[in-house]
Amino acid sequence: MQIIAVTSRNRGNRLDRFLQAELPGHSRAFLQKLIGQGQVLLNGRPSKASYKVREGDRISVEIPPPRPLRARPEEIPLDVLYEDDDLIVINKSAGLVVHPAAGNYEHTLVNALLHHCRGQLAGIGGVERPGIVHRLDKGTSGCLVVAKTDFAHQELIAQFRSRNVKKIYRAICWGKLERPSGRIETVIGRSERNRKKMSARVARGRPSLTEYRVLKQWDRFALVELILHTGRTHQIRVHLAHIGHPVVGDAVYGRPRSAILVARPLLHAYKLGFTHPRTREFKEFTAPVPDDMVTLCES
Fold first, then answer.
1. What confidence score (pLDDT) does residue 26 get?
2. Catalytic residue IDs
């Protein structure tokens, strides 16, 4: 059982959203199910997912043991940056979905990992998400770490939750940026106009911070490097769109016509650094910028 205390920084958030931020290895739907089953207690009593948490609330979460996997191993090529008995770091290709979900029960990274690791993945991520510590959008490429043991999974989740993970991205965005570097600091929450999108223009959201640096500027677009200090859903895509420089190829937050030029948002998880759960050594990995981004930069 995990005990989580609500601080002043988190007060006012829905219980399910609060837990999703505190337990990033689990989906909101999964956490809502736990709440409905009474496996989440608020100050010792069952609650509703819509409850707005208050400073001082103590929340206990009982995550049930994993059920047998339904996902099947598939022989899908993987670009492995590092692997040992506890974890594996992948350079995820663009277009590869991380884990099975509605509409994508096959041909995912989890299916590939089950084959590559011969079933040796942490079980506490749940039936469809064994070993998954964090996620990258389908269209995003780059560094992603997956736990092979429950010990590594819990340790890595704690590092992501406490923001002790180094996350550096590269993106190609539209337009000329006025400043060579800067900070984008907003709240991010579910869009009030389109519930399938996130937005920085909401009355209530979660604090979000991205630092950026322009690496190269052209007439129509720029190559930027971004440091994530928080890990909100679609954070970089939302933040760049918020300052008027959406990611090239992002039809959701940017310019729909730009998606015709490229097959995906040109966003890449370039570097990932964390403390190894067992050796306690800080390890950093780099995923080379993919060809589609290199090609555009050289055109």
1. 77
2. 137
Give pLDDT tens digits for 36-82: 989 999 999 999 999 999 999 999 998 877 555 567 889 999 999 99
Mean pLDDT (10-residue bins), the chain, 299 residues: 86 90 79 90 92 93 69 90 96 91 76 86 62 92 95 92 95 95 95 87 91 96 96 96 95 74 91 97 97 87
Architecture of domain 66-161: 2-Layer Sandwich (3.30)
Region label for 107, one of left (φ > 0), alpha (ψ between -120 and 50) or beta (otherwise): left
State the fold for domain 168-268: Pseudouridine synthase (3.30.2350)
The hierarchical CATH code for the domain 2-61 is 3.10.290.10
The answer, as to whether pTM is greater than 0.70, is: yes
Q: What angle do CA 17, 21, 24 make, to 5 degrees?
A: 120
Domain ranges of the chain: 2-61, 66-161, 168-268
**CATH topology match: 66-161 vs 168-268:** yes
